Amino acid sequence: MINARINANGNSRDDFGKAYMALIAVDEAINNAMSVLATNVLHGRNYPHADSVDESILTATYDREAVLTKLTTAIDASRDVQHALMGVITADD
Length: 93
Hints:
mainly alpha
């Protein structure tokens, strides 16, 4: 996925490592956002416009699942890039 390589005249192993660590931070931030969304924001009480309590709970559940699926997909993509970066970092020069 990443065809870039460490180069004496370009980026160092450390540069690739910094990108890797930044992606780790992205994963942590997404996980934190998922927690807040799931336990607070996407809660049935935030759907007062629903016709009934049951509808508000169902709508909140649907929204929560849809949002968490998208964020999980983002984490999966981040981890794919992390894996590719680690391949570059650990490759023999």
